[in-house]
Structure formats: C-alpha cells, structure tokens
Amino acid sequence: MKTKSLFTISAVAVMMLLLAGCGTRKSQAYYDQKSKVIGTELDGSYTIRAWGRARNAADAYVQAQKQAVYDVIFSEIQFVSGQAPSSTGTLRPLIFEVNARQKYEDYFNAFFADGGEYKDFSSMKEKRQLSTNYAKTDAQTVAQVTVCVWRARLREKLIADGIIK
Description:
Layout: H1 2-20, E1 36-40, E2 45-54, H2 57-74, E3 77-79, E4 90-91, H3 100-103, H4 105-111, E5 122-123, E6 133-136, E7 141-150, H5 151-160
Parallel strand pairs: 1-3
Antiparallel strand pairs: 1-2, 2-7, 3-4, 5-7, 6-7
C-alpha cells in the first residue's frame, strides 16, 4: 500500500513538472523594449539600439529610427553595461521641460513626419551586417535596429530653433 501511494505521488509530481514546462512562448513582438545606448563617439554621436513597431518591416525600420531620435530628445536612455561614460549609467534627455512635446507639438510633428528633419540627425549606415532583427505577428512587425544619433548637432538645432536654451 505504501509503495502504491509513493508511486502515485511521484507520477503526479512528474505530470505537474511536464505541464509546467509546456507554457506558451511569446515573440519579442509582444513586449515593449526600451532603447539602449551601445556606444559613444568623440564627435558627440551615440549608437543606440532602438525598437520600432509597424504593420510591415520597412515601416518598423523607419519607426525605430524615429524612436532613437525621440528618445535622445525626450527620454533618459540606459547604457548597456560597461559603456557609460558617467557614473549614472544613463544618457540624459536634451529637453527637461515638462510637457515639451505637447507645448511644441507643431514643431515636433513636422520634425518627426515621414521624410522630416529627424533624418538629418540620425543614420543607420554605421550598423553591422545582420544587426537588424524583426519579429512578426499577425498584427504587427517589430524591428530592432542600430541607429547613430548625432546628439551634439541635434542639441544645436533645438537651441537655434528656440526649443531649448
């Protein structure tokens, strides 16, 4: 009797372990990823790993480039480990003003429009081969792209246009 109950308990435990291992795996397309700084240059540019979401790969690629520039302007971006030139480990945004995106909405809508000025301050030419990754679901495509953003030039432009002081 004791052997039978031990066998039953063991069988139940094995079945639970098997069922626990059969969880569903989701594509990276379901997760929100934040941009990360993966390198810096002496000319004031930063190499950023950014993510873009769109209906197809080409649009996701462009959205990732826009997201990299957007994050440099408005968001604090984490450096990958060992790359931070400062003790904080983050790249501070160019604009600290609260609600600046809404305050200068017309300016930034034109700036980030398709073919807008954001392209003058970013490039994807310096990326390594096969460094762009795509994840596709029925609803969207997510692109992970390496973008070079010229932060110093972007800062000069925002000063010249009266957005920052």
